[in-house]
Amino acid sequence: MNTNRSKNSSIRILLALAVIVLSGQLLFGQATTGTLKGTVIDPNGAFVPGATVTCRNQATGVESPNATTNETGSFVIPNLLPGPYSLTVSAATDFRKKTISDIKVHLGLDTEVRIDLEIGLPEETVTVSANPAEVVETNSQISSNFDAKKVLDLPSNAAGSGIDTLALAAAGVTQGIGVVNTNGTSLSVNGNRAYSNNFTINGMDNNDLSISGPSFHVGNAEIVQEYQIITNNFSAQYGRNQGAVINIVTKGGTNSYHGAAYEYHRNSSLLDAMTNIERRDPDRSKRDKFISNVFGGVLGGPVIKERLFFFGSYQGVIQRENFTSRSDNLAILPSEFARLQATFPGNQMIQVITNQSAFALNNFGTVRPRADRGTDRVCISATPQTNCVAGDESGYFAAAFPEREFPAPYDQNEITGRLDWFMSPDDSATISYLWQDSVLGNSISRWPFPPGQSNGFTGDQVTNSRNLSGFYTRQISNSVANTIQATFQQISDDWGGGCSDPLTGCVPLPTEIGEAFTITVFGLTGTNNPDAALQNI
Known about the structure:
Elements: H1 3-22, H2 24-27, E1 34-41, E2 52-57, E3 67-68, E4 74-80, E5 83-90, E6 97-105, E7 110-116, E8 125-129, E9 135-138, E10 142-147, H3 148-153, E11 173-175, E12 187-189, E13 198-201, E14 204-205, E15 224-232, E16 245-250, E17 258-267, H4 268-271, H5 276-279, E18 290-304, E19 308-326, E20 331-332, H6 337-343, H7 348-356, E21 366-369, E22 376-379, H8 384-387, E23 396-400, E24 402-407, E25 410-424, E26 427-440, E27 461-475, E28 481-495, E29 518-521, E30 524-527, E31 531-536
Parallel strand pairs: 1-7, 6-8, 13-16
Antiparallel strand pairs: 1-4, 2-3, 2-5, 5-6, 7-9, 10-15, 11-12, 13-14, 15-16, 17-18, 18-19, 19-24, 19-25, 20-23, 21-24, 22-23, 25-26, 26-27, 27-28, 28-31, 29-30
C-alpha cells in the first residue's frame, strides 16, 4: 500500500469538502435574498475608487457589512432580504456624502444603482430617493417577481385558496393538466407538464414527492414578502425539475409593530348565477349552498430593535356548501327492489343491488334521478332471450342515472411563525415554522376520478402539513459567504373516516381497512377501501 498516496488523497478530499462548505450557498441554497450592485462616479463621469458604501434595511434598521468600491468604482452587497434599502456613500474629502433611499431589492435579482457624487465637504450629506432611471434589475434567468403589495393587491384567487394563480400573469405560464397538488391552480410552463415544477418556501424544499406539486399550500397572502416564478435560464443553484421554479419568501418583523386582521365572506347561493344543468331543473331557483368565511390576522415587530424580530400569523377557513354529484351509470330504481327480491329470492348479487347500489344508499344526502337524463331500463334475467324481448319484457327493471346532493364542509387552521436574529453585520440566523391542518368533509364523494361519485360511498380527507426550516449565514467578505441550512417537512393525507357504517357506504379510516369491502354490479367494481400517505423530508 502506498501511504503517501493515501495521505495525499485524504488531503484532497478534505480540501474539496472545505470548498463545498464555503460555497454551500451557491451549490445548494435556493434563493431567499437579492443583491445590490453599483457604480460610484464623480461629476466628470470618472470612477471613484476607495469609497465606503453602507447599506441599511429601512424596515429593520439592520446594516450590512460595509463595501468599498474598486478601481472601476464598483461595489457588491449580497445576501439582502427582499425589501427597501438605503445606500450611503462616503468618499474622499472632495465629495459630499450621499444617501439614496427606497431602493427595492427583490428575490433572486441583482439590483444595480448608479451613484453620482457632488463636489463639497464630507460633513455635508445629500439625501435623495431612488430614481428609477438609475436603478436597474438584472439577471440572466427569466423570472417574474411579485412583492408583498402586488401579492395583496392583484386579483389572484378566492381568499384562502392559494396564490399560485399569480404565476398565470407571467409569459409562458398556463393552467396545468394532471392530478397534482395545487396551491390555487396547477401550472404548465413553456409546454412542460404540471409535474415538472419545483416549489420552495424560504429557500427550502416544498414538494409533494408522491403526486408532485407543493407540500404546504400558501393561501394567506398576508404572510408573503415576495413571490417569484422562474421560467427559463435557471441559475446554477437550481435543479431537480425542468419546468418552473416557484419561490415564496415569508415576511419577517421590522423595527415597528405592524399587524392586520381580516374577514372575507362569500355566499354564492345568493349572488352567483345557476349553471345550465341547474337551470334545467324546474324546481330550482338558486345555486347550491356555498358559504365561505376566511378570517385571521398577522403581527410582527421587534423583540430587540435592529437585532431580533418576530412575525406570526393565524388563518382559519370555514366553508359550508351543498355538492351535487352526478353519475353516468344506470342504477336500479328503488321502486323495483321488491320485484327484484321476489324474482331472485336469496340471490346475493340482488341483495347487493337492493342494499348497496346508488339508490339503495339513501342515508347519505339526497339521492334522486338526474333531471337532465331520462329514465331507462336494465335486463336482469337468467333467460334474457325469452323475457327481455318484444312480447315478454318481464326481465326488464326500471333504472335511471342517479344524482346525489350532500353537505361538503371544509375546515382549515393555519399558524405560521418566523424569527430573524441579526447577531452582527456579518452574522444572521432565521427560523420559520408553518403548520396547517384541514378536513375536507365527504371528500371521497366528490373526487374528480371519476367526476362526482354519486354511488353513496363517502369519507373525509384529512391533510396535515408541517414545514420547519432554519439557516445561519456568515458573511466572510462581499464575495464569499457561508450558509448552513436545515429543514424538516411533513405532509400526511388520510382518505376515509368521518362516518360510521361501512355497509352503508362509509369508507373507514385507514386503521380500519379490515372493514372495507368490494362489490361488482353490471361489470363495474366498487370498493370502500381507505387510503393514506405520509412523507417526512
